[in-house]
Amino acid sequence: MRRILWSLISCCLLFTGAQCVPRGLAAADRYAAWVVYWDADRGLKESEEHLTGFSETVCFEAYYEENGEWFVPEESEQIMETYRERKLPICLSLVNDVQMDDGSIVQKSKDFLMQTLLTEAARSAHIAKIMQLVRTYRLDCLEIDYENLKNDTELWEGFTIFVYDLYRILNHNGIEMRVVLECRAPNYAELPEGPEYVCMCYNLYGYHSGPGPKADRLFLEAVGEDWKNVPGEVHMAFASGGFLWVGDKVRKAMTEQEAAAWLEENGATARRDPDSMALRAILNGEEKYTLWFADGVTLAFWRDTMREQGYHCFDLFRLGGNKAESLALFTGEGC
Fold this sequence. Notes:
Layout: H1 2-15, E1 30-36, H2 40-49, E2 56-65, E3 70-71, H3 74-85, E4 91-99, E5 105-106, H4 110-117, H5 120-136, E6 141-145, H6 153-172, E7 176-182, E8 196-200, H7 217-226, E9 234-239, E10 241-246, E11 249-254, H8 256-266, E12 271-272, E13 279-284, E14 288-294, H9 296-307, E15 313-319, H10 324-331
Parallel strand pairs: 1-2, 1-15, 2-4, 4-6, 6-7, 7-8, 8-9, 9-15
Antiparallel strand pairs: 2-3, 4-5, 10-11, 10-14, 12-13, 13-14
Helix pairs in contact: 5-6, 9-10
């Protein structure tokens, strides 16, 4: 009954444009989602179909060239132009991926962060380039998604100064700022007030491990506890879809729709894991295939787990390849 009441309250307040309020107070849920450039068409279609469910949509992504200049893929420009035509706010995610001169891409480059964040001069030059990006695309919001800091205390110190300085400039210019962080971030740094912080509540299992769900209750409860002292609005982000493993190696990432198609093609049946509410299927043949993925029931369970700890802002990575009923269940649409 409590969950039903929360869903009804959330639906009503979402339609009135309610914003997130500090944890511990009565609050309406607020939802955001990413549209990725490599699946722009499907992501834009889902975002249009669920405008009432997601109060904010982030274009993912822009990244960097080897010379330190930013680069925006054409598909990302398409996403932003579509939102401009829809008269919606433009938010762009800036990631520390680096495209090398030979065409290869270094994902989550720590070397790039070391070059741009460790000295005052480097940070100032880096922020100047970022502000050029903001002006060029007339952004309403900038998201910083710099990852792979791990437990490097010197790099975390430089990063927090960077966030503080960039936020002051963006705020002065009327631009909102979001900062996406790995779930262990509060253990390494005291984050400055100002931006909205987004916690990646996934990667419990993935490319780095054998088969398993992207999150489960114990993982989420630990993350929620770690983030209780982070200032301002905190968004808990979940990942839709899942992975297909062969043995202990990921064969491919799959959206929810792709996972459902794989099950049908192989005559396999997925069963729900009680600890994560994710779906799991095992197919034994010449090779052992294991599929784990999230549907709407999974996403709602993850959301409710964090809601019980006082969080009310929830983000989804990503739009594109989800079933409509799953997105509606996650956001409480159709109440």
